[in-house]
Design a protein that fits this description.
heterodimer, A: mainly alpha, 2 strands, about 0% strand, B: mainly alpha, Ferritin
């Protein structure tokens, strides 16, 4: 996942690039237009740096918070194979978080600072993880829908103009697409299972469908960062374009499962060659983003508790390393 | 192996395999509880790695035990549909995670035991068990490096971490006795050349643990009389809750496939 929150301004307003040296800016834009990668030591406008720090760190935070809703089912996974797959998946998310924090660090910000922003509630993460996982089918639905939406968002990021981010995304996308197939496989098994399992699958789709569509962020007309990000080739498609792609891709998969997409307005527009879908409840989206979703408090509280409970451990490791270093130097 | 040696009854072999499998499964299940809550991302990843290896080993052993038993039970039937007294894991494995220090002590004591045991099982007269153990011994070398590394950091870290982890060691130490207290099944397996002599494992374990404790500046607790019989199906109170989580979906939806 998970770049949706970046449409929400969180930090200070990015510095107006008008103050930057005009010639350097032009040269920078020329490199971007020529599809060259920008590397950490290259000159870049401050606004470009700030946009990337915000986007990459939000993505990293989303991976880390995203470990919680799925981790919720590790101990209760219904077979040893499913349990192993789920552990590996949640572990992948932790890995994504770790290397995204590293990518952000190349822009001159530390992981500790970024984690502090998350724990203090100043940083955003994808609001999808503020919804609860109530049944095993939710693990399937997250893989299928949430990771599916993430892939739509992220494949274009593999060509992002900032080198370290683009390279991190190539690996992440490979793993996400694996997760997506695993999620779909869970849904398939449920959809072909007992009546109770089919109900479980339908209920999960009912609850995850709309939040998944919201993952692409506000409609283009209301999106604050799209124009800049598109010009800098951080973003290559608009929120609505990606959302449409996702709907067109996912609706036939739901049909194959024999499940109903919970949108009475959903229909195939043969002339336009695309699905038309109903109105998204942006009030809900904004509420969840502002901290009033079903699990916002719990998720942050859990992350804070893990961080606090681990403090003595991190201090011990640092103390031991310092002693060890002192001994080695002696 | 000597041909004159009595072949143990299949039931004893199945029970021996279940001891190994259940210890691996229960310990992996406990580590699974940590993922997303560890002191740092690297530790989420490290604990998940060990959990995955333990699950993998449990699956191989359960599948083998099921075949040997010949009652048509596969790895999931054995994992999800046996009750507490039928679980034969070491009692130490089922102890709650506690804080990170408790988890590391539990893990290190068991990793050191598992490594010494698995290296010897790699030479088992049972070819299939030997192959499984050879693969698992390689993994256990990493596990013991991870948990041993942390034990040293915590023991030799701050005054707080030292005191905490010494406390964990005192609490969990009494549960190690069971690992080396050979009963009828252990003896039958050793006589048949299927498993090593537990006395030998105990000596090697003790040497390894003492070296790590020295490096960690921790004191080895005094031995206490043997009280735990998890490997015979008599457990602490903790296993029931662990199994309730583990088995919930299979119990709630009998016969469903996932």
């Amino acid at each position: 996942m998970y770049t949706q929150g970046l449409n929400e301004q969180t930090g200070r307003p990015v510095a107006a690039e008008a103050t930057e040296d005009e010639a350097r800016l032009r040269a920078f834009q020329a490199r971007i237009d020529a599809e060259e990668k920008i590397e950490p030591k290259d000159w870049m406008p401050d606004a470009y740096r700030q946009t990337l720090i915000r986007q990459i760190s939000q993505h990293a935070h989303s991976e880390i918070v995203g470990m919680l809703p799925e981790g919720n089912w590790i101990t209760r996974a219904p077979s040893l194979m499913r349990k192993s797959i789920l552990i590996a998946k949640v572990q992948d998310e932790g890995g994504h978080g770790a290397y995204l924090y590293s990518a952000a660090e190349t822009l001159g910000v530390s992981r500790a600072e970024l984690i502090d922003q998350l724990l203090s509630g100043r940083a955003k993460y994808s609001s999808i993880f503020n919804y609860p996982t109530l049944s095993w089918a939710d693990v399937g639905a997250i893989g299928w829908l949430v990771d599916g939406a993430a892939i739509m968002n992220q494949i274009p990021l593999c060509r992002c103009s900032y080198g370290p981010y683009a390279r991190a995304m190539i690996r992440i996308c490979k793993e996400e697409s694996f997760h997506q197939r695993q999620g779909y496989d869970i849904m398939l098994k449920l959809a072909r299972g007992t009546a109770a399992q089919r109900r479980m699958a339908q209920d999960a789709l009912d609850r995850w469908w709309w939040p998944s569509l919201m993952m692409f962020g506000p409609p283009d007309a209301a999106s604050m960062h799209t124009a800049h990000s598109v010009r800098w080739k951080i973003k290559r498609f608009t929120n609505d374009e990606l959302r449409q792609k996702f709907v067109d891709f996912t609706v036939p998969q739901a049909k194959f499962l024999g499940l109903n997409v919970p949108d009475p307005a959903l229909r195939w527009d043969a002339e336009a060659g695309m699905h038309r879908y109903g109105e998204i409840d942006w009030t809900e989206f904004n509420q969840v983003l502002k901290g009033h979703g079903p699990c916002n408090r719990e998720r942050l509280a859990e992350r804070r508790a893990a961080h606090e409970d681990g403090r003595w451990v991190r201090e011990a490791a640092a103390a031991h390393a310092a002693k060890h270093g002192a001994r080695a130097a002696a | 192996m000597n041909a004159a040696i009595a072949v143990p009854p299949p039931d004893a072999r199945v029970r021996y395999l279940l001891r190994l499998a259940d210890t691996s499964l229960v310990l992996g299940q406990r580590l699974g509880e940590w993922i997303g809550h560890a002191p740092a991302i690297e530790e989420d990843l490290g604990l998940a790695n060990t959990a995955l290896d333990l699950m993998g080993l449990a699956r191989l052993l359960l599948a083998y035990a099921g075949e040997l038993e010949g009652r048509g039970r596969d790895e999931d039937a054995l994992a999800f549909l046996r009750e507490e007294p039928e679980y034969l894991n070491a009692t130490l494995a089922e102890q709650p995670n506690g804080d990170f220090g408790d988890t590391i002590v539990r893990q290190y004591l068991l990793d050191a035991y598992r490594l010494e045991l698995l290296e010897r099982l790699a030479g088992s007269a049972d070819g299939r068990l030997a192959a499984i153990a050879a693969k698992a011994a390689k993994e256990a070398r990493y596990h013991v490096r991870y948990s041993g590394g942390w034990l040293v950091r915590l023991g030799d870290g701050t005054a707080e971490s030292h005191a905490r982890v010494q406390g964990s060691l005192e609490r969990l130490w009494p549960l190690t006795r069971e690992l080396f207290d050979a009963d009828e099944i252990d003896r039958a397996m050793a006589e048949a050349g299927i498993a090593p002599d537990l006395g030998e494992v105990a000596t090697a374990w003790s040497r390894r643990v003492d070296a790590t404790l020295r490096e960690a500046t921790l004191a080895r607790p005094k031995d206490t009389p043997y009280l735990w019989y998890g490997k015979q199906g008599r457990h602490s109170e903790h296993l029931g809750y662990l199994l309730a989580d583990l088995q919930y979906l299979q119990r709630a939806h009998p016969g469903a496939s996932w």
